[in-house]
Amino acid sequence: MQLIDTHVHINFETFQPDLDAVATAWRAAGVTHLVHSCVEPSEFAAMQAIADRYPEVSLAVGLHPLDMDKWTSATAQTIESSARADSRVVAIGETGLDFYKADDQSLQAEAFWQQLMIAHRLHLPVIIHCRDAAAAAAQQIKAFQSEVGAVTGVMHCWAGTPEETQWFLALGFYVSFSGIVTFKNAHQVKASAQLVPSDRLLVETDCPFLTPVPRRKERRNQPANVLHVASYLAELRQEPLATLAAQTTANAIRLFRLPLDRPTHSTVSESTG
Which of 122, 162, 221, 265 would be 27's cystine partner, CB 3.0–4.6 Å? Predict the structure, then answer.
């Protein structure tokens, strides 16, 4: 059984002391590929160094909507040139909209649009962060697809309602679930996870954040825990873990056009976890 963690931040300082051990753990859990998302372009060099160490790591580059203080007239060009220069870049992001306590909504929308433009030009998917902004994000994607052209991607770490989930499915997007879906009171997330078609479903950790049940006492999440996310989703959707793992892996390979010739590592049996 193989799994792909489609959203990690293992460049964060919390992983520096023991990243080799973290890699050993994800390989033992059957995680054969990871997509390393980007908060801001200045961290891209550190992400590249990680991908040099671990060939199963692919990269994304973008600017997070909560980092608009770092958006300048040159940021879009930096993102695009970084994406063009490294063949390991498989997506633009994470980008999107976060209107929770935000007073910079128009700037977020501008940066989001510019990153959609980059993704469109480079024929890459986008990794979208969306908090308290589902209607605005859906409207902006719909407008972009109408006025500019095709763009696709993933609603990462999704926590929206079933109705909101349908909006993004209708726009051709994938939906990725993190440890949030395992939380006791995440009722609307569980409902959304049950309705996503199997060919649009992805799994992620968003580590070091959002450690899933049953590892909630561990302050630092890690890629190996995507197995717990997948196991919970399989039970929730009433399908075998092996089936969900195979489907989400195939979906990630298709969306991100992941190279199949990169090294893979030993996988675990369906009973693990």
Answer: 265
pTM: 0.94
Helices 75-85 and 105-122 cross at an angle (nearest 10°) of: 30
How many angstroms separate the Cα of 178 from the Cα of each of 15, 51, 159, 193, 195? Answer: 19, 22, 9, 10, 16
Those residues whose C-beta lies under 8 Å from the C-beta of residue 123, and which sit 6 or more positions away, are none
Give the separation between CA 246 and CA 65, rounded to whole angstroms: 32
Question: Which DSSP state fits 211?
Answer: P
The closest of 181, 191, 173, 201 to 3, measured between CA atoms, is: 201
Round to whole Å and give the CA distance between 225 and 62: 25
- State CA 2 to chain mean position distance: 17
Amino acid at 150: A
Rg from Cα positions in the chain: 17
Q: Splitting the chain (273 residues) into consecutive groups of 10 residues, what average pLDDT does each group show?
A: 97 97 98 98 98 98 97 96 98 97 94 98 98 98 98 98 98 98 97 98 98 94 98 98 98 93 42 32
Integer Cα distance of 224 and 235 in angstroms: 18
Classified as helix, coil or strand, 92 is strand
Sheet of 174-177: strands edge to edge? 3-8, 31-36, 57-61, 89-98, 126-131, 153-155, 174-177, 201-203
